[in-house]
């Protein structure tokens, strides 16, 4: 029996319906296999909750694919809409799928106001999940690539402030010897990407991004 012939899904059997007893804001929608639900590098217009079928998530780092995962019913796709983050992965329907979807604005309202504990925690959890994609790949590649990604990540996390972390600690996190980390930093300073003071002051963020790819 094909997807279109299957009986409609019941909200009573869905966890979204359980927490939205009055009127669930999600709307059921069906996609055929091969449909792209989420494009990498674009803020999602919709949040999708998979009810039936399989969705594939592929992640590219630079010019090569570095991760591939399969998700089924009970999966949210497009949570990056919270905070308008750019997803690093693409989501594509591997089979015909049934989803319940909602716009980003309405999803934020459904989560609850930022003035309530649940709203704050939910948004923090979504942001944390969004970070995981890039962090999983931060330890790939050469020592130079790993250091460049760390410096960019630290700069972003501190809203443009410089990283004040001991070299030996950074080296341990990046799984390299302190001598290797120091050698990479020295090279970045000589090339003008980092300042020459004791702090890891980024002077050329664009060059650092290129080196991290």
Describe what this molecule looks like in 3D.
- 23% of the residues are buried.
- Helix 4 (143-157) packs across helix 7 (205-212).
- The protein contains 7 helices and 8 strands.
- Strand 4 and strand 5 form a beta hairpin.
- It is elongated and about 60 Å long.
- Strands 1-8-3-6 form a 4-stranded antiparallel beta sheet. Strands 2-7-4-5 form a 4-stranded antiparallel beta sheet, with no helix packed on it.
- It has 213 residues and is of the alpha+beta class.
Strand content: 15-25%
Encode the helix/strand succession as letters.
HEEEEEEEEHHHHHH
Mean pLDDT: 79
Oligomer: single chain
Q: Compute the number of strand runs.
A: 8
Please give the radius of gyration in angstroms: 21 Å
Residue runs with pLDDT of under 50 for 5 or more positions: 1-5
User: Strand count, sense and closure of the main sheet?
Assistant: 4 strands, antiparallel
Could you tell me how far the N terminus lies from the C terminus, measured between alpha carbons in angstroms?
A: 46 Å
Q: Which class do the helix and strand fractions yield?
A: alpha+beta
So how many helices?
Answer: 7
- Helix percent reads 25-40%
What is the overall silhouette? elongated
